[in-house]
Amino acid sequence: MKHVAPGGSAQFENTLKVSVWRSDTDGYQTFLVPQQDSQTVLDIVTWIQQNDDPTLSYRFACRVGMCGSCAMMVNGEPRWTCRTHVSKVTQNGGLEIAPLRNLPVIKDLVVDMDPFFDKWVAAEGVFEPSLTRNDPIEVADPTTVQRQQADAAIECINCAVCYAACDSVAADPDYLGPAALNRAWSLVNDVRDAGGGPRLDAISGAGGCQNCHSMGSCAQYCPNDLNPTASIAGLKWETAKSWMKQGWLKW
Length: 251
Fold this sequence. Notes:
By secondary structure, this protein is of the alpha/beta class. The chain folds into two domains: 110 residues, Roll (Ubiquitin-like (UB roll)); 137 residues, Fumarate Reductase Iron-sulfur Protein, Chain B, domain 2 (Orthogonal Bundle). The protein is 35% helix and 14% strand. It has a six-stranded mixed β-sheet. A two-stranded antiparallel sheet has the order 7-8. Strand 7 and strand 8 form a beta hairpin. Helix 7 packs across helix 10. The radius of gyration is 22 Å and the shape is elongated. The N terminus is likely disordered.
């Protein structure tokens, strides 16, 4: 572990010991960062980059909890760093910040999101319209159970926090993961979508919904309070019904 004695924090009375993962050493580098009121973990990372080490790489965009791009591991747990207040997560007077788990590291705190989105595509997570632009617009009835189940799953913003939290992904790299399967569930329940058959085939195959162990980490850590575990349970039931129907037709 490399330690840094930053001059930038010398004028502050109260400092925080922060260990940050650095990809060039495959280890943690420790910084002393001034403590401030209402400070977020993203504020900490930004201060280090602006005052101590401009080579530190990390990803962020909106800073207000809308985009999810600033997700990192904070003391071993996946979080949006822009909405995580330091005072609520500090342990023993310090912080440990690392890149999201289960994804390849590009540099420092920046991960490659391609595997995450590749699984989204593999789960047939793309809307397939049942009508053309020349047809009247089909209205989805918000009072139906199907529409309510779809609505409960549509607020995912692809931050990959659930993916990083998932032990099933860690154990099986082929597992599609909670975000992709949650998206599939929203489309299964969308009456306007026509991709149901191929989608059920995709999410019932190798790496599909049956690989979920229902541990619930995805629901526990989702910043938008979604419940991918419930969505995946729904997919398990739908795939089981599809298998039984196919078996009956063959019989």
